[in-house]
Amino acid sequence: MPIDSGNTAWVLASAAMVLLMTPGLALFYGGLTRAKSVVNMMMKSLAALGIVSVSWVLVGYSLAFTEGNPVVGGLSEFGLRGVVHTVSDAGLPDIAFAGFQLMFAVITVALISGAVADRMRFQAWLVFTAVWSVVVYFPVAHWVWGGGFIGAEGLGALDFAGGTAVHVNAGAAALALAVVIGRRIGWPGGQTFTPHNLPLVMLGTGLLWFGWFGFNAGSQLAADGVAGLAVLNTQVATGAAILGWLLVERLRGNRPSVLGACSGAVAGLVAVTPACAYVEPLGAVALGLVAGAVCPLAVALKHRLGYDDSLDVVGIHLVAGALGSVLIGLFATPDLAGRAGLFYGGGLGLLGVQAAAVALVGGFSFGVALVIGLALRYTVGIRVSPEVELAGIDSGEHAESAYDLPLNGTGTDVAGRARGPALVD
């Protein structure tokens, strides 16, 4: 089969865009934390880049996208040795597809880190990343996209770009880790945990938003009309989610904020991910509005239920990913999805299939992440000491600080190290 240079170029460009999402996430999470935790958040994303890149070449692609059984692929492509020179029936080199899917694996693991900001040992994060990516992400990718029991060849669930495989998967694991590791010292009262740098949050949001076009439209694996639909639906759903989030915040008596708008944008991006090629633009707008309205309420639940999800991975990624996946059962059009949602005369069948896929992926990821977290807790240790947490995880775990500036006449930087003459307000 001759190589289609146009489609190949689009997939390679999309892979680069999805890669950009991980440093974008590092900046987004870094801005959301306190100043003394920025380095640690960025290091967790960098660690995911390193570990998952290697494990994907060794076993990840093979476990996810080669023939095996309905639960996991085989090891026939260990090291990608048989993939380098093969080409799919659509004219796309398999090695380009492998590189594109690698970026999905990286960002999925990195998303989890937001739930354990300020308090998870970096060593424990390295072990969790290595184990969870192999035991959970690679098999789930096979379930959904690689011929496993959830996707087209099994249950028949629809997930164009990762509502279940990425966001429900990561969000459920984040919830498990948050439960195992416990609350931050001083949360929910007693200390201020507000974002320390909103411009950094805005920059991270912009990079995520840009990269998401490669994430969603690139999943078509072709430069065609479906990719164009995915781009448009991604944009309008995200815009609608911003409006939905701000409206709910206004109704709750809060003022419009950059933090709320950025959170709404991410919620919309997450929600449209599984549905972006299966719904019409009006359906994408409706989906975004629902996600933008529901997610701030879901975020608030952590205070009622008592779990400390530091950067709202559960309230945004798990909830919006589940919403986007399930709402395909309402808004899917037969000419785009091959099956009709409830609002297009399809009945409740697809809705049930989508809900089952969410439950299966979420339950599996939560359960395995809980076991990994407990194993870490009782072996190498999962949480930094109270002294390190109070002084700042950046200095305790990395001997670095994000801002090499003295603060308010103290003569020390945020890591507590002397830095010459003090600045005076």
TrEMBL record:
According to its record, how does it sit in the membrane?
Answer: Multi-pass membrane protein
Q: Which SUPFAM superfamilies match?
A: Ammonium transporter (SSF111352)
* Localisation: Cell membrane; Membrane
Q: Which InterPro entries match?
A: Ammonium/urea_transptr (IPR029020), Ammonium_transpt (IPR001905), Ammonium_transpt_CS (IPR018047), NH4_transpt_AmtB-like_dom (IPR024041), RhesusRHD (IPR002229)
Any Pfam family: Ammonium_transp
Of the GO CC terms on this record, one is: plasma membrane
The main location class comes to membrane
List residues traversing the bilayer. 12-33, 45-65, 95-117, 124-145, 165-186, 198-215, 227-248, 257-275, 281-301, 313-333, 353-376
Positions of the Ammonium transporter AmtB-like domain:
9-403
Q: Which GO terms describe its molecular function?
A: ammonium channel activity
What protein family is recorded?
Belongs to the ammonia transporter channel (TC 1.A.11.2) family.
What's the protein name?
A: Ammonium transporter
Organism for this UniProt entry: Stackebrandtia albiflava
Starting at the broadest rank, the lineage of the source organism is: Bacteria, Bacillati, Actinomycetota, Actinomycetes, Glycomycetales
